[in-house]
Amino acid sequence: MPIDATQPYDDQNIFAKILRGEIPNRTVYEDEWALAFHDINPQAPEHVLVIPKGAYVCWDDFSANASDAEIAGFVRAVGHVARSMGLVEPGYRLLANTGFDAHQEVPHLHVHIFGGKPLGPMLVR
Predict the structure, then answer these.
(1) Per annotation, catalytic residue among 38, 108, 110, 112
(2) What band does 1 get if pLDDT is binned at 50, 70 and 90?
(3) DSSP 3-state assignment of 48?
(4) Could you tell me the pTM of the whole model?
């Protein structure tokens, strides 16, 4: 069910629980700024989620309220994960949903990295 990205951060969301170690995950990468792990319902042969360790609802919240160090660390983590997975040369797609119209389902900023096959064009109707 899509969430309202304008609401305050809910520290009981699934990604907050993953960050606290309450829910296991298949970690791909972790540093002081971000955690990356395999999606439990992959939509491509390679499908990894990268989340910031800070409590941010969506990209808008993150870009408005995160420190410069958090933003740089998170963006670098996304790039590091894509490179370490060998996705740069064949190509990959990044996706970050925000709010109802984008069908954001978890109220914690997350970037999807899709790859491992030709993904075709993005079609918005």
Answers:
(1) 110
(2) confident
(3) strand
(4) 0.96
